[in-house]
Write a structure and sequence with these properties.
It contains 16 helices and no strands. By secondary structure, it is mainly α. The chain has two domains: 1-194, Growth Hormone, Chain: A; 203-401, Growth Hormone, Chain: A, CATH 1.20.1250.
Length: 401
């Protein structure tokens, strides 16, 4: 049954429209990510080239998101979203149409499309405080968003692979561009979007970054662990002689996150976001490390579903904390920095897991994947302790009477 807290959110004016169009616009990440890899492999026959172009796509998308989010904070978010959506889609269309096997040319076209990526993710997260009153509603909204974003990781790659197989990788890239453009244009038309901008907005200062740095590090470590798990799952399936089962296993993992987010949304949080995030990170660490000794694919799938059920609630708690601690006038930029840290964590996790699998097998990668969220939990503990110390010091210095 759909949680009552989520049903209340979806009855709030403008929220269903904004959330639906945002999810469509966000398909470009997981869909184009796979479609571009398939295109490069098909054009060049080189997986090394595909890895290079994939890294360029992720890195440039993160940089572009951070740059454009500042303009969203400063004003005219609709203009920023529409301009970048047109430019990014044009870049993807050009990549799909270019009949070349030149790696530098394919890399340059991918970089251009990625750098122009519209900042829909941070803009959407900055929009929820505008549309929703109260911390409880916001907490439920961030949990719902973290839950439904799993759909993009299920639908996007599946759609990209199906179109590439039925038509061509070029058609898959072009379709990703068209869907992203349509979704972004629809999202940009959301009433109230202009209120995301702040008249006193400025670029994130070093002091602002320092204040939210522990949360950015937490996000990077959590996503690093998830990226390592993804590589380890593929390696475990290949070692068991069931390489084709890796896609199904990863879909089960994402479905577990989706279900976990739905179930958690049915119960109002009894703890603050710091405490929730801490416990969830610890649980993710334990459940991920427990995947290491599992050999059978059926048992591995069941364990992945359990581990996945903790992901969306954990991300929801993290988003709530970022929104609460983002400096005034730089909310969108702060969420963009979180997105950038997630990209860094994903890239680092994939590289580290690949080396671990090569040297010691998928079990070692699963153990390392469990260590990353445990370190993130330690960061949360130290952050809560330091914030508490500052508050106690301030209270001691307040004049009495």
């Amino acid at each position: 049954m759909f949680p009552s807290a989520y049903r209340t959110l979806l009855r709030t004016p403008l929220v269903p429209r904004a959330l639906g169009t945002l999810l469509v616009a966000r398909l470009v990440g997981p869909m184009a990510g796979l479609a571009v890899v398939l295109l490069v492999v098909g054009r060049t026959g080189s997986f090394a080239a595909a890895g290079l172009v994939s890294g360029v796509w992720v890195g440039c998308a993160g940089v572009g998101c951070l740059l454009w989010s500042r303009l969203v904070d400063r004003g005219r978010p609709r203009l920023v979203l529409l301009t970048t959506a047109v430019a990014s889609s044009a870049g993807l269309f050009a990549l799909a149409a270019a009949r070349t096997s030149s790696v530098p040319m394919l890399t340059a076209l991918t970089a251009a499309a990625a750098l122009a990526s519209p900042p829909v993710i941070p803009t959407g997260r900055a929009l929820w405080p505008v549309l929703l009153p109260g911390e409880e509603s916001l907490s439920a909204m961030y949990s719902l968003e973290a839950t439904l974003q799993e759909l993009t990781f299920i639908v996007g790659p599946a759609l990209a692979g199906a179109v590439a197989a039925a038509a061509s990788p070029s058609a898959s890239v072009a379709l990703a561009a068209g869907i992203a453009l349509a979704g972004c244009v629809a999202f940009a038309a959301t009433p109230g979007l202009d209120r995301v901008a702040h008249r006193d907005a400025a670029a994130l200062r070093p002091a602002d970054v320092t204040a939210v740095l522990p949360l950015l590090a937490t996000g990077a470590l959590l996503v690093c662990g998830l990226s390592m798990t993804q590589v380890a799952v593929v390696a475990a399936a290949s070692r068991a002689g069931s390489a084709n089962a890796s896609g199904l296993l990863l879909a089960v993992w994402s479905a577990g996150s989706l279900l976990g987010g739905l179930l958690s949304g049915g119960h109002p949080p009894r703890r603050g976001p710091e405490s929730r995030l801490l416990w969830l990170l610890g649980a993710v660490a334990v459940c991920t490390a427990a995947l290491a000794p599992i050999g059978g694919m059926v048992l591995l799938g069941a364990a992945l579903a359990v581990a996945g059920a903790l992901i969306a609630p954990g991300l929801g708690a993290l988003y709530t904390l970022v929104q609460q601690r983002a400096p005034a006038g730089a909310v969108t930029q702060t969420f963009a920095a979180l997105t950038m840290s997630a990209f860094i964590g994903a890239a680092g996790g994939a590289i580290a897991a690949g080396s671990l699998v090569q040297a010691a097998g998928p079990g070692a990668a699963f153990l390392a994947a469990g260590l990353a969220p445990m370190v993130a939990a330690a960061v949360v503990v130290s952050t809560v302790a330091s914030v508490g110390a500052v508050r106690r010091l301030a209270a001691e210095r307040m004049p009495v009477g």
